[in-house]
Amino acid sequence: TLGECATSVNENEMSGVSIYPNPAHDLLNLQFAQNGRIDIVIKDAPGRLLFAEKSNGGNLHSINISSLPS
Q: pLDDT tens for residues 34-62?
């Protein structure tokens, strides 16, 4: 598990993960430095869970965020 990270920061690389594009509207891509199953969690500013999924084990994972609140 990578822990928590904010996608609104200017840096889009941290702890072996690249998050792009920033800003994202429909698809959010996460590219991990290593293969492996990772828990992916998206929360809003107050901490409410918006999305949770386990990665497919590869090093690239795409998330459809078009239905999430902006």
A: 888 889 999 999 999 999 999 888 899 99
| Side-chain-side CA neighbours of residue 63 (13 Å) | 21
User: Please, are residues 54 and 38 in contact by the beta-carbon 8 Å criterion?
Assistant: yes
Six-digit token pair at 64? Answer: 């459809």
DSSP letter at 68? S
Beta bridge partners of 57: 36
Which amino acid makes up residue 11? E
What gap in Å lies between CA 1 and CA 52, rounded to an integer?
12
